[in-house]
Amino acid sequence: MGESDRSSSSDVAFTPAVKAVQMRKGSRSAYAALEERGGWPTRVTAELAQFIAEQTSVFLATASRDGQPYVQHRGGPKGFLRVLDETTLGFADFVGNRQFITLGNLAENPRAHLFLIDYATRRRVKIWGEARVVEGDDTLTATLMPQGYRARPSQAILFAVSAWDANCPQHIPLRLAASDIDAALAERDDRIRALEAEVASLRAAASRLT
After folding, report:
1. Residues 150 and 199 in one domain
2. Burial grade of 167 (CB within 10 A; 0-12, 13-18, 19 or more)
3. For 67-109, how does the pLDDT look when each residue is reduced to its tens digit (9 = 90+)?
């Protein structure tokens, strides 16, 4: 059976045109070996679920019926992107600028892509699948809405995972969230105050002995 007859989860990205470029650039054999082992994971693992739960930002890519691409940022508190089961993700879609490009694209082309990047740990994950918009389901939207988050949900978006891949950290800049820096500085300041108090106490004790 030839390579063109085999099916792999990574075929969602490695189209014949992509494989032709890989062949020309010298990387095809490595990815062919990956495909022999079954390709990319198709289900959410515990490790991926933990990574998703820590993210406050995600990029959602869609395309119109004729292939015009569009990428939209989605953000929220940790856990706003929810793992519903081992093949389904979901999030409450907050009211934004009301251009509705993503919703329009999904109405005619359900294929979608999620790109997650964690600058603090220099990790990125790419997830292929299909997305659908769920309007008018208040129970689902409320379930996906982050508790205490001050945003107004408009609808829910469910994402059916087809395959995912985690990239190496090469070329990802190291960046920290402002909230993480503030927390670290506050911890440092508390430690400094504790040490200053300890020094003052020791000095007072030493002065009483002289």
Report:
1. no
2. middle
3. 999 999 999 999 999 999 999 999 999 987 889 999 999 999 9
Residues 51 and 99 in one domain: yes
On whether both 146 and 117 belong to a single domain, the answer is yes
Give pLDDT tens digits for 149-202: 989 999 999 999 999 999 877 766 666 677 777 777 778 888 888 888 888 888
Q: Which domain holds residue 9?
A: 3-36
Distances from the Cα of 175 to the Cα of 27, 41, 163, 184, angstroms: 31, 28, 27, 14
Please indicate, yes or no, whether the overall pTM of this predicted structure exceeds 0.90. Answer: no
Number of domains the chain is built from: 3
Angle at 143 between CA 138 and CA 145, to 5 degrees: 90
Report helix, strand and coil shares of the chain as percent, to nearest 5: 40, 30, 35
> Could you tell me how far CA 4 lies from the centroid of its own chain?
32
Q: Which residue bears the tokens 């409320």? A: 142
